[in-house]
Every structure is written in structure tokens, then in C-alpha cells.
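lol forgot to send this yesterday, sorry. C-alpha cells for the thing we talked abt
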């Protein structure tokens, strides 16, 4: 019996990995179709306890990218807005949740 070869890169490319398009402080980007595994594992660690602020910040930079988060901070991102970004990502991209459920923020089907 010969070895099997599985090309995950090709499989994932075929499935498509793009999620919702979002605009944050004038910056439009395409979200991933699911939460990064590193973020989910961190969330699981803090399931029953309070997460330190620096851990939350690290997770947001994992999802949105350090350069985007820095740009938004420079533009005056508030803590309430920061919280909205975290909540949106967790609600919208939660692999255990239903993506079609109503999000806490207004979500347009296809913004151009």
C-alpha cells in the first residue's frame, strides 16, 4: 500500500477562506472565514475566568493585524469601539455558532 498525499493548501484554497468585508475607521478589509486557532485556544483557556486586557489586545491583533489596530488606535479608537471589534469577531466567526444569527452590530450583506 502506497503513501497518501493530502495537499491541505489546495483543499483550503478550493473551499475559499474569505469571510465578511468590513470597514473600520475608513479601513476596508476582508475578515477570515473563521477565528484563528490560536485565538480560539486562548479563549478556551479563559472560559471560566476573566481575561487580562493585554491578552484581549493580543487576540485582536491576531485577528485584524497589528498594522490595522495601530492605525485605528492612532485615529482615536475608543475602548467601547475596541470591545465592539472583539464582540463582532467572536459572535460572527465563532465556529460553534450559527453565522446567520443576528449580529449585535449592523451587518450589510455586500458593501462596495
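and heres what i got for the seq, position by position
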Amino acid at each position: 500500500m502506497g503513501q497518501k498525499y493530502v495537499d491541505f493548501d489546495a483543499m483550503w484554497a478550493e473551499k475559499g477562506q474569505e469571510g465578511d468585508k468590513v470597514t473600520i475607521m475608513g479601513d476596508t478589509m476582508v475578515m477570515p472565514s473563521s477565528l484563528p486557532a490560536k485565538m480560539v485556544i486562548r479563549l478556551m483557556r479563559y472560559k471560566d475566568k476573566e481575561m487580562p486586557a493585554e491578552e484581549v489586545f493580543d487576540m485582536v491583533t491576531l485577528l485584524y493585524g497589528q498594522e490595522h489596530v495601530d492605525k485605528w488606535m492612532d485615529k482615536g479608537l475608543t475602548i467601547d469601539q475596541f470591545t465592539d471589534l472583539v464582540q463582532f469577531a467572536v459572535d460572527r466567526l465563532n465556529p460553534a455558532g450559527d453565522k446567520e444569527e443576528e449580529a449585535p452590530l449592523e451587518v450589510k450583506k455586500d458593501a462596495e
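The chain has one domain: 8-93. anyway ping me if u want another try
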